[in-house]
Amino acid sequence: MIELSEQIITVLMLGGVLTLVMTGFPIAFVIASVALIMGSILFGGDTTYHILYSRMYSMVLSYPFLAVPLFTFMGVILQMSGIVEELYTVLYETMRGLRGGLAIVTIVFGTILAACLGVITASVTMLTLIALGPMVTRGYDKSIASGSVVAAGTLGILIPPSIMLVVYAPQAGLSIGQMFMAAFTPGLILSGSYIAYVGIRCYLNPKLGPPISEEQESKESFLVRMIKLLKALLPPLLIIFSVLGTIFLGIAPPTEAAAMGSLAAVLLAVAYRKMTWDLAKRAALETLRVSSFVLLIAGICYAYVGVFMSAGCGDV
Asked: How would residue 209 be classed by pLDDT, with cut points 50, 70 and 90?
């Protein structure tokens, strides 16, 4: 065992993670390696293994983490069933006469997806498949098109029900419900900032996001388009209310709200005749894969923090 100052330990542990991440190794293995090596140097093997084991075991028993697979399952069901894809088409028909309208619709749709899915991989994948091709085909600047997809897809990190917030809150000793409430408004502000940026850029330079020509304009009346929009908004609104509504109204805590969201997603898939045994199987396997990765990283990070705090670096 070697005695080192708290400042040096902090530099070595944080610097080790940053350095090894740039080598391309998976983040879970990087954090685990740094925690194991530094713990062995500072405390010896037996003590380090006890710290790592006890921290990971306590995290496994943490009730709030049950929300991770539930939110993941909800998002996967919505993604694979294609229930919310119609909303993108309706939004586009409503705003396609606007400069940069397709990019703005992509951001709006991404914001709604963030509040429904909670898994950014699902959001980015869906937006890439649905939105990127049409924008490029209609002459949108590639930086605007790809930037809109990436920016909108990653809003799920901040906008509830974010898996990241579910993982972060227990480790920080905070309430998941309070984290959801605190993150909701900044997420909408960020989305609004993206929309304003795209709108201003395309207004000043229409070539970046040309509006649709008059020949291609929909002949449907405004009332018909609004009815179609409200109909397409119904599924995501039900999902949002089943999760965030139950939390914000105090009906259920986040873990139970995640179960409500999963149930609502399944019922919507059944109602829209999208639910099949094959879909259920694929959704279950994808939920298992994503949840395993998320919880593995969370557990290793929790163990890493245990070594860091045991070394007395909490006040550095």
From this structure: confident
Burial of 86 (0-12, 13-18, 19+ CB in 10 A): middle
Q: How many CB atoms lie within 10 A of CB 315?
A: 6
Going by C-alpha positions, the residue among 75, 102, 107 that lies closest to residue 89 is 102
Q: How far apart are alpha carbons 204 and 196 in whole angstroms? A: 12
DSSP string over the chain:
-----HHHHHHHHHHHHHHHHTTT--HHHHHHHHHHHHHHHHH-HHHHHHHHHHHHHHHHT-GGGGHHHHHHHHHHHHHHHTTTHHHHHHHHHHHTTSTTHHHHHHHHHHHHHHHHH--HHHHHHHHIIIIIHHHHHTT--HHHHHHHHHHHHGGGGTSSS-HHHHHHHHHTT--HHHHHHHHHHHHHHHHHHHHHHHHHHHHH-GGGSPPPPGGGS--S-HHHHHHHHHHHHHHHHHHHIIIIIHHHTTSS-HHHHHHHHHHHHHHHHHHTT---HHHHHHHHHHHHHHHHHHHHHHHHHHHHHHHHHHTT-TT-
d(C-alpha 208, C-alpha 8), whole Å: 50
Question: What are the structure tokens assigned to 187, written together?
Answer: 């997420």
Residue 305's closest CA among 33, 11, 55?
A: 55
- C-alpha dihedral, 265 to 269 to 272 to 278, nearest 10°: 170
pLDDT for position 195: 92
First to last CA, the chain: 21
Q: In angstroms, rounded to a whole number, what is the distance separating the alpha carbons of residues 137 and 140?
A: 7
Q: How confident is the model at residue 191 (pLDDT cuts 50, 70, 90)?
A: very high
